[in-house]
Design goal:
189 residues
Length: 189
């Protein structure tokens, strides 16, 4: 397995080892000890699976008081997956990192607690699976505008299909006074 660090502390891009032959392929999508040795020692408590059509954009989502770390992969199609640092005392606050995840590159993006997450579908459809370090809590969820000008994500689609909740989400600046200070936010990247 190859592990790539990113400009955002704690955000890691994994390229699992894929064993393929004429029958198909095999890979480990998660192995606690191997991922811990690579820098991801999180304990996962929930798995999620979504299916989306073309140009669907989901996000940006986070939990305020019970932040989730997420290990994300595309099991069908291709998505552009994004992490945004929302740790208000972090030196990389409001910065983002994006990676293409697909059923052919097998990459996984780890987004640690204290980051918002979103993705857009760049194929006819996509199925995304992700492991979470915290249980989903609807009353703790926040949404941040996908096109927040202060974050300025360079999405690879121009006219995304959005849920009403995502379309009407506030900007990160509108959340600022309500964001907690996450542990390790002031650490050097």
């Amino acid at each position: 397995m190859k592990v790539h660090t990113t400009p955002l502390e704690g955000v890691l891009l994994f390229e699992p080892l894929v064993h393929g032959d004429e029958r198909g392929f095999f890979l480990e999508t998660y192995h606690r000890d191997k991922y811990a040795a690579a820098g991801l020692a999180a304990a996962f408590v929930q798995d999620n699976h979504s299916k989306s059509g073309p140009h669907i954009l989901r996000g940006l989502h986070a939990q305020r008081c019970f932040p989730q770390g997420k290990l994300v992969r595309a099991v069908e199609g291709e998505v552009f997956d994004v992490a945004v640092d929302i740790r208000r005392d972090s030196p990389t606050f409001a910065q983002w990192y994006g990676a293409t995840l697909s059923d052919s590159n097998f990459r996984q993006l780890y987004i640690p607690p204290g980051f918002a997450h979103g993705f857009c579908v760049v194929s006819p459809s996509a199925q995304v699976e992700y492991k979470c370090t915290e249980l989903y809590r609807a009353d703790d969820e926040i949404g941040i505008r996908w096109d927040d000008p202060d974050i300025a994500i360079d999405w690879p689609i121009e006219h995304p299909v959005l849920s009403a909740k995502d379309r009407d989400a506030p900007t990160l600046a509108e959340w600022l006074d309500r964001l907690p200070v996450y542990p390790d936010a002031a650490a050097d990247p």
